[in-house]
Amino acid sequence: MRSATRMEWIKLRSVRSTWWLAIASVVAMAAAGAGVGLGYRSHAPVATVAQIFNNSLAGAILAQLLLGALGVLMVTGEYGTGMIRSTLAAVPRRRTVLAAKALVGGAAALTVGLAASFAGYLAGQLAIRGTAIPAASLGDWAILRAVLLTGAYLGATALIGVGLGTLLRHSGAAIGTLFALVFVPIFVVGLFGESGIAIGRFMPLLMLLNAVAVTTPTPGLFSGGVSVLLMCGYAAVAVLLGGVLLRRRDA
Amino acid sequence: MIELRELTKRYGRQVAVDGLSFRVRPGVVTGFLGPNGSGKSTTMRMILGLDAPDGGEALIDGVRYGALDRPLTRVGALLDAGAFHPGRSARAHLSALAASNDLPRTRVEEVLRIVGLTGAAGRRTGTYSLGMRQRLGVAVALLGDPGVLLLDEPVNGLDPEGIRWIRDLLRGLAAEGRTVFVSSHLIAEMALTADRLVVIGRGRLLAETTVAELAAGGDTLEDAFFRLTSETTDYRGAEAA
User: Fold this and answer.
1) DSSP tag of B122
2) Residue in chain A lying closest to B98 (CA)
3) What are the C-alpha distances in Å from B209 to residues B27, B41, B42, B213?
4) How high is the pLDDT of residue B64?
């Protein structure tokens, strides 16, 4: 397992797409944070801490797709190129390969996700300096918790990507499915009107925007921590299902 | 030693490999011949545990590939048309595979030198010519210094110098006592490289023979090959008018 993990880490860092997706995630969140801060500078009445902070993490909407794609490509990139046969010839224990991919991809995405989340927070705070808007301090647990949970949510998204990639084996199909899983439930929940929240609290994007990346979760939703755990649960299901198929299918 | 016992693979109702049994011995180059679509690559993938057989088994020194510990040190494989990511450098590709089997980093530079890719090792493999990709594939096969080598169509895309290089390399590896199993659909090339031949058609064993025996029939090797495989060629062009 240790050697398989080392292999996956070398593979992950030796393709450019990894770095582009990581950089794009951080930049997207920093840009969104700065944009929100700048937009609120002349806002009347003066914005609240929560207004600035919650919105400054909105870049996570894009970052989750980028890091999800990173997870997908760790697997589908191998199927698309034939690399998977080299990998499985080197490590015939397929569940070990998948576990190593999940470990390396999850850890990398968690790191990048945390960096991106902090970048969004910092950019938002820097953009409102010199205004009457109160600053959000990381010393405030509600703030720090939201920043950390957003990073963890992004890490879990990459794991879902690894699982989807293993299940579908095709980059376009897996990334398309990832997008669909993120956005389609929102419209479905909308159809249920007021009672939509009962199922909406299980939907990734709603959890992100209303429970995870916010100081106080919207009433009716799970807490940020439970929401992230739910994401990890989804990731575990995707990876485990992927593992079952990986073992059974020809490479 | 590679041993196939009644190895069978079906895709739906199509039987790709049909009860194939033979042994590949160490010390000589064994050519694996058959027309396109005869099941050579499928057989190789099953030997490597990449495809699961529907019946029978393929053993390497008496065990299934999947049961080998650090398999790269036992079996080296060159898979069709370069099984690597085009965005990754040859050095990174080899380093990743070396790490997976706890091989020392120095071995990466050694195999790069053996195949003549040291100067291009930092370049992305997507920029490689077909010949360079084949050389990288050979480097992968040699990485773990294995006693058994499986090469699927290694001369595809190589220029005459590259073909001779592969031929000398394979013969040298066999002379060291290794088991060398090389697939090809080119009988003329196999005649120069291999000592023993395993000929299949439509997934069935047609002959286990030697180059010398096959040529002893009087006609050319090519004619002998066509005679063997004439019933089993799936696609054939019409004669030009």
Assistant:
1) T
2) A7
3) 16, 20, 21, 6
4) 97
pLDDT category of residue A200 using cuts at 50, 70 and 90:
confident
| Residue B59 maps to a domain | yes
The tokens describing B61, both together, are 């020194």
Nearest residue, CB atoms, A3 vs list B87, B89, B100: B100
Does the CB of B97 have a partner CB in chain A at under 8 Å? yes
Specify the number of domains making up chain B.
2
Length of chain B: 241
**Containing structural domain, residue B26:** 1-68
Is the domain of B79 the same as that of B136?
yes
| Boundary-marking domain end, from B68, B90, B106 | B68
Say if B72 is an interface residue toward chain A (CB within 8 Å): yes
Q: Cβ of B84 and A82 within 8 Å?
A: yes
Q: What CA–CA distance (Å, rounded) separates B89 from B87? A: 7
Contact A90 B87 (CB under 8 A): no
For A62-109, write each residue's pLDDT tens digit: 999 999 999 999 999 999 999 999 999 999 999 999 999 999 999 999
Residue B192 near chain A (CB below 8 Å): no
Q: Model confidence over A126-161: pLDDT tens digits?
A: 999 988 888 888 989 999 999 999 999 999 999 999
pTM of the model: 0.92
The size of chain A, in residues, is 251
- The predicted structure's pLDDT at residue B81: 62
